[in-house]
Write a structure and sequence with these properties.
Helices cover 4% and strands 28% of the residues. It is mainly beta.
Length: 102
């Protein structure tokens, strides 16, 4: 998750799991915990963290963050959050949603 005004100046902290073309599952504490504010971007398709901007990387703006209703910030219980992306992810070999059992 990218915290900052632009992708180039963002601090990249926390991670998440792509679950659909518009949503990323993450920890709720990643959505409000950091002194750098709330995340603004999601980076997908990274194969090697040492090479941030490969041809497979997609950087998408975050439209909305959603906290699990029973999230307890004080003790980090029910630490689940959703990120709604501003636009659809372009699925490819490096960016596919996780298969979640129903």
């Amino acid at each position: 998750l990218g915290f900052g005004l632009t992708p180039n100046t963002a601090k990249w902290l926390c991670g998440g799991t792509l679950i659909s073309e518009h949503f990323v599952l993450t920890a709720a504490h990643c959505l409000d915990h950091f002194s750098v504010g709330r995340p603004k971007f999601v980076k997908l398709g990274m194969v090697n963290v040492l090479r941030d901007y490969s041809k497979n990387v997609q950087i998408l703006k975050i439209d909305k963050t959603i906290f699990y209703p029973y999230y307890n910030k004080t003790v980090k219980m029910n630490d689940i959050g959703l990120i709604k992306l501003e636009r659809k992810v372009q699925f490819n070999t490096y960016a596919l949603p996780a298969c979640l059992d129903s």
